[in-house]
Design goal:
By secondary structure, this protein is an alpha/beta fold. The chain has 13 helices and 15 strands. The strands form 3 sheets. Strands 4, 5, 7, 8, 9, 10, 11, 12, 13 and 14 form a 10-stranded mixed beta sheet that branches. The protein has a 3-stranded antiparallel beta sheet with strand order 1-2-3. The model has no long low-confidence stretch (mean pLDDT about 95).
């Protein structure tokens, strides 16, 4: 069996550009699909796949996943960046999809089988004030949710961006967290998505006090700082949130601030999740080996795909760290399926982030995992169990645009990590 073609496919069913890789073989009708979504720079990933990985891989045996992964990894000489990692991921996941189809098994069966029937997920609730956040948390609870992430004005507390339509999942906001309402101060030298870190930091402990006072402690609650605070202020927030027993506090610091995780561990027992921006093993190894985090939050395609992710899960198991793979709107249903298959097969699974899968996603990606109650369920089809309808995908072409929400600034104009 040989690889005959590797190509990228871009589509935006929910308004978020997704990049999918299709690996075709010389066996009639046998192909694999993988997620390569780097939605902030999608065309660069597509070019890496079409111009470099396609000619590199044609004629090779798709069964040799480990060898092909390492070849793609070192072939560019420079490595561990998000563009090439995502390109590699698309191929890597597609090769696992092919192997599952050949075996007639879901991928989770190829790596040891199930440890659980389905994966517990957390949902996203936002609002313009703590009362609206509570209302939205209750709506999820009534739907059977077991865990809810609570934000107040998205990332950094930009409450003015929140509307009723964006405080819960919708077509316009599949993640239910508004990332930013456009650039401000455009007539100045420093236009950006401004937010006030002090006001944001002061608003969060009262939010959780309000929610816990109304709902008690039976529901798991989470929060995402998203690197929006100075490190010492993030530590202060982690300490202040201890009485509310968060399932975890996410992205307390930027990936290059490893030393601050050591300071935090000395002072707070709030569980910590980290990893969605990680692209290099040197970013996660010390956090795991020193047990500075409780949950690994890696974006599987950004770290190079399913092959390195299953190794990372095993490493985490040795140090008592649980998995909580990144699962936002800029992960394709194929990527969500890869997350889910690891969730099902990993004994150290913790929780899974998930979006509201809109009808266009089910149209373009038949077999998309199903959300029922507080769990995400996989089907029993071979491979990932998710296909791609290319005709339907073509109905939702991506619209290139400048990314605005990452141009985050403090009130004085200082550019800060988004």
């Amino acid at each position: 069996m040989k690889i005959t073609r590797v190509r990228s496919i871009m589509t935006a069913p929910d308004g978020i550009t997704l990049v999918v890789v299709k690996v075709e073989t010389d066996q009639d009708g046998l192909y694999g699909l993988g997620c390569a979504t780097f939605t902030q720079r999608p065309t660069l990933v597509a070019k890496a796949v079409d111009d470099y990985l396609d000619p590199l891989l044609r004629g090779r045996d798709p069964a040799n996943i480990e060898d092909l992964w390492r070849m793609m990894y070192v072939n560019s000489y420079w490595r561990n960046g998000p563009v090439l990692n995502n390109a590699i991921s698309g191929v890597d996941m597609a090769l696992w999809d092919i192997k599952g189809k050949l075996a007639g098994m879901p991928v989770y069966q190829l790596i040891g089988g199930k440890c659980r029937e389905a994966a517990m997920v957390y949902r996203h609730a936002d609002g313009r004030d703590k009362e609206e956040v509570l209302e939205n948390v209750i709506k999820y609870q009534e739907q059977g949710a077991l865990a809810v992430r609570c934000q107040l004005g998205g990332y950094g507390g930009r409450v003015k961006d929140i509307r009723e339509a964006t405080a819960l999942p919708s077509k316009d906001a599949p993640q239910a967290t508004h990332r930013g309402g456009g650039l401000e101060r455009q007539d100045s030298a420093f236009p950006g998505a401004y937010y006030n870190p002090d006001a944001y930091a002061r608003s969060i402990p009262p939010l959780f006090e309000h929610v816990r006072a109304k709902l008690g402690f039976e529901l798991f609650l989470l929060h995402d700082i998203h690197e929006r605070l100075a490190p010492i202020d993030a530590i202060r927030m982690a300490k202040a949130l201890e009485p509310y027993r968060l399932f975890f506090l996410e992205d307390v610091f930027a990936p290059d601030q490893i030393e601050w995780f050591r300071r935090l561990r000395e002072q707070s027992a709030t569980p910590i999740a980290m990893g969605e921006l990680h692209t290099n093993p040197l970013e996660w190894k010390p956090l795991i080996a020193e047990q500075l985090i409780d949950f690994i939050r890696a974006h599987i395609s950004a770290m190079g795909g399913f092959t390195p992710a299953k190794k990372l899960a095993a490493l985490c198991e040795s140090f008592g760290v649980r998995t909580a793979w990144h699962g936002p709107g800029d992960v394709s249903p194929i990527g969500h399926a890869a997350n889910l298959h690891l969730d099902l097969a990993s004994p150290n699974f913790g929780i899974q982030e998930v979006i509201n899968f809109g009808e266009p996603l089910f149209e373009v990606f038949p077999g998309t995992p199903e959300l029922r109650g507080g769990y995400l369920w996989a089907n029993e089809l071979p491979g990932w169990g998710v296909d791609l309808d290319e005709a339907a995908a073509a109905k939702y072409p991506p619209v290139p645009k400048v990314v605005e929400w990452t141009q985050s600034r403090w009130p004085d104009g200082t550019l800060w990590t988004p």
